[in-house]
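Milestone 3.1: sequence recovery, worked example.
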């Protein structure tokens, strides 16, 4: 609940340092109080956090996200 109140006041909740820079940026963009400052769903789908692969494997047997 504390996070909801902080967001409403324009204060983003603490974001774990363990997240990547792209993940942090994605979250902060989603938490913009003013909807005019928030990216659209289409813009979020083009964000580097969403666009990069979940993992990269050197195995020739692993293809895409399904394994």
């Amino acid at each position: 609940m504390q996070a909801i109140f902080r967001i409403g006041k324009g204060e983003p909740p603490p974001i774990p340092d363990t997240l990547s820079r792209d993940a942090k940026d994605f979250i902060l963009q989603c938490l913009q109080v003013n909807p005019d400052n928030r990216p659209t769903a289409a813009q979020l789908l083009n964000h580097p956090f969403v666009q990069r692969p979940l993992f990269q494997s050197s195995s020739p047997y692993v293809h895409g996200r399904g394994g």
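The chain has a mean pLDDT of 82. The first helix runs from residue 2 to 8.
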